[in-house]
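Issue 218. Parser rejects a valid record. Input:
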Amino acid sequence: MVRYASPMTQPPRTATLIVNTQSRRGADVFDQACQLLRDGGITVDAHPIKDPKDLTSTVEQAVADGAEMIIVGGGDGSLSSSVDYLVDTDTVFALLPLGTANSFARSVGIPLDLPGAVDVIVNGTVRKVDLGMIDEDYYANCAAIGLAPLIAETVPHWLKRWFGRIGYFTWAGVSLLRFKPFVLFVDGEKVKALEVRIANGPFQGGTEVVDDADVMSGDIVVQVVIGTTRAALLWSWFASTLRLPHRKQTTREFRGTSIQVQTDPPLPISIDGEIAAHTPVTAHVASKSMRMVIPHKRAAQ
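Output the parser choked on:
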């Protein structure tokens, strides 16, 4: 896989910390996160966000005020809604994975425990990474068509908050009973589909499913779970979760910098866990568009 050279620098020593306290662990770890960052030598301007609707405006204002680094604490949806404001700016993005799946953190190799994530912010390296785009909307990790949007539309917040990934997958089983296959057109090619992942990173729902997607590849990957039955979708999930060699036979992949995606019937698209678009769309990669703190070992790959 092609890697793109990018200047590596130390993270800034001042930061704006913005935490979605409605995320699974946000309220519980806010004070500890502030203290760990300060102990690590980071001067922190901290903002606990009680209403998730205020998160993006707080990020936007911090960028406008010239913040050297913005640390967002929350789930994948919080991170994805934040990145639009950091595209092609000098502000460095860092994250604290405080959600249910934390797929973007997994994609860039950030530890899921709070001390480990803070250690990356304090001692990691700044590297330019790719973002995905659905039409003109930037996102961090993965957009999905099929069952994932159905889950996102209906899953009770308390179920994710109290039971985490177990609760999420339990609800997925319930949602599967309402799920129907669909027809997908990728750059004009017709495919019978059960699920579609438009991936900037390899993880979806906390599981590694799109092996060849990478936030430093310069490409977007459209992975299609092929078939017409719920059993085929379940088998693909099972094979992917256990990393069975057969998983690759359950999918097709399309790779490029810009890919047209259409479905019959038109369907909603979940972008990093939140419903944010409907087909038809064009998926793009915004190559090396955001400066981000990542682990040294990840930057060296």
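Fixed in the parser; the record now loads. The radius of gyration is 19 Å.
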